[in-house]
Give the backbone structure.
Amino acid sequence: MGAEATAFVSKCGRAVLFAMLAPLATAALAQDYPARTVRIVVPFPAGGSTDVLSRLVAQRLNEIHGAKFVVENRPGATGTIAGAFVARSAPDGYTLLMHSSSSYLAGFVYTKLPYDGAQAFAPVIRCSISGLVLVSNASLPARTIKEMVALARRRPNELTYATVGKGSIAHLAAEMFSNAAGIKTVQVDYKGSAPALTALASGEVGFTVLNLLDPQPFVKQGKVRSLAVTSAKRSPALPDVPTMLESGIDVEAYLYMGLFAPAGTPAPIVNQLNAEITRIFTEPKTNAWMVNTLGAEFAPHTPAEYGEFLTRDVASWQKVIKQIGLRLD
């Protein structure tokens, strides 16, 4: 055998050996995981629902592995600051990101980002999911979604709605509702849910779409009404509120919070985290906490199934974004 042939065989042998040993090395890495501190990066300030859920996950994982999981808040720019940080982190399982639906979607809405929202992250697990609720001012002469739609059709471009910020899931859900109902409504932007709810309760605007629990104190005071939720089924947090679908409006939309790793993180690590967090959230006590504290639920799924959900979810929001011509820099 000539020298070139010998070198070729040797090179092929090394390639085959590497291919055989690589899965073993990856499995060994996962077996030792976590060997050091794991950061769960939260794209919002401390105290919000994403932060609270992240700290619960870290606390429960620490009960399994010792004090290795810590929460790090990196707020700003609708979560894209945290997204960029995690996207450029090593794909070794030691830097994770707890996205909300808004911060994940921001990777597809903003035009100038240092990362690709569709390629930068490996889905690990969706920790919570819930619908949103459409709430109206109590003085609005409409006690149901059907009555509100009829009112808006009689008075096009008169019914106003509050958003918690342009491009937010709440904003897009309100637009999704208006498009599905065939009505013309007027958008009024506020900086967060608190001023939006204050405006709604005072009658500055006619309705808004928010997470399930934030409006409930105003509902109890009789200042606003919960008319419909956007999930396919009624929420256990608001069992008496009908769905949009029940009300004849073809709207299905969700809020969620979920864990991600940088793209390329070894599958055994992703699968290990998915399995451990699934065990945490399927405990009846934790499930009840989710409903009462966040108005949300958990359903077991694989990382691949989470990825499929994200693809469908982003596609539905991109359709709305295209309809309203939204562009954010």
